[in-house]
Design a protein that fits this description.
single chain; 322 residues; alpha/beta; seven-stranded mixed beta sheet; 7 strands
């Protein structure tokens, strides 16, 4: 087979009734397929070994459940060890059409992108079949993912249909990437620290009889915590450790002015209200002016951050990591 070697990784947990149909639809362009039985109680690995004769398929088994991220990372590592050039991850529940793989990997082959991912919201009409709680959750998490990763140009961050240049993956600290449902968002954060180019690829929503293991009520707070943590890390890495620019100064001075103005205002309000006095116009301005200026400086930093999305693919400059 000519062209780059494309490896598809499919983490499997409770997808035994769908996985054979997914494998049957795999395009010829794919060189190798890694089915990761993530301690599946339905025996997805056994189902594949009994029902699939495709020589490209390799079944890997996890002794214990590692989560969608842990299973995917194991498959990526094995694919890299076997010489894959492009890594593709899709789920085994049939929601992600394997026929889209050529479209997903095309920007990577053409060296226009380091990583691509599906976007189910490009055609809003196709989201009519998506459950309401998923629509609301994706809208909220998409904003926080933009903030934590720096990829303001993408949407649908929890979409697990993605492709990546294997050279970029080798430079990622895989052991630091979240192994479970925060995997896709944490992966974007790690790609952002490398200044890798990430591109959205439009795709249709497909919802049938499959069920999701993700529970919005149970995962919202951990997701928010993860995004806030990554936002703080990214800010430190991007604007104070790896670079220092006017945006760094705006961010630092703006935070000090905003925090100082709010603290002063709160103190003056409490001290004067406790003795029944009204604040003078000068006192109000003394607290309000730093807040206004600080907010404007932070807004300027945010504008710079939005314009600072990576544009030049790094994969063409990378060798194997030391």
């Amino acid at each position: 087979m000519s062209g780059p070697k494309i490896a598809v990784v499919i983490p499997c947990y409770r997808v035994a009734e769908h996985i054979l149909r997914v494998l049957a639809a795999m395009p010829e362009q794919v060189s190798a397929i890694y089915v990761i039985d993530d301690a599946c109680p339905h025996g997805s690995g056994d189902v594949v070994e009994r029902g699939c004769t495709d020589p490209r398929v390799h079944v890997l088994r996890n002794a214990e459940n590692l989560g969608v991220g842990g299973a995917s990372l194991r498959g990526f590592a094995q694919a890299c060890a076997d010489g894959a050039h492009i890594l593709v991850k899709l789920d085994g529940d049939g929601q992600m059409a394997p026929e889209l793989i050529p479209r997903l990997v095309a920007p990577i082959i053409q060296q226009r992108s380091d990583c691509t991912k599906g976007n189910r919201f490009f055609d809003l009409a196709s989201t009519r079949g998506m459950p309401t709680h998923r629509l609301l959750g994706n809208a909220l998490m998409s904003f926080f993912a933009k903030l934590s990763s720096g990829y303001w140009n993408i949407f649908d961050p929890n979409n697990g249909y993605l492709a990546m240049d294997a050279r970029v993956f080798r430079w990622l600290p895989a052991y630091k990437i979240a192994p479970r449902y925060f995997f896709e968002s944490d992966l974007l954060f790690r790609l952002g620290t490398l200044r890798a180019v990430v591109q959205d690829i439009p795709m249709q929503c497909r919802y049938g009889s499959e069920t999701s293991n993700l529970r919005l009520s149970r995962n919202v707070l951990p997701f928010l915590g993860g995004h806030l943590r990554n936002t703080a890390k990214r800010t430190l890495y991007t604007y104070f450790l790896r670079d220092f620019s006017a945006a760094s100064i705006n961010l630092l001075v703006g935070a000090l002015l905003l925090g100082g103005g709010m603290t002063l205002g709160a103190y003056k309000w409490w001290s004067l209200s406790s003795v029944g006095q009204l604040a003078s116009s000068g006192t109000v301005m003394l607290a309000a002016l730093p807040v206004i200026i600080g907010f404007q400086l932070l807004l300027s930093s945010l504008t710079y951050d939005i314009q600072n999305v990576p544009r030049d693919p790094i994969s063409k400059y990378l060798d194997d990591p030391p």
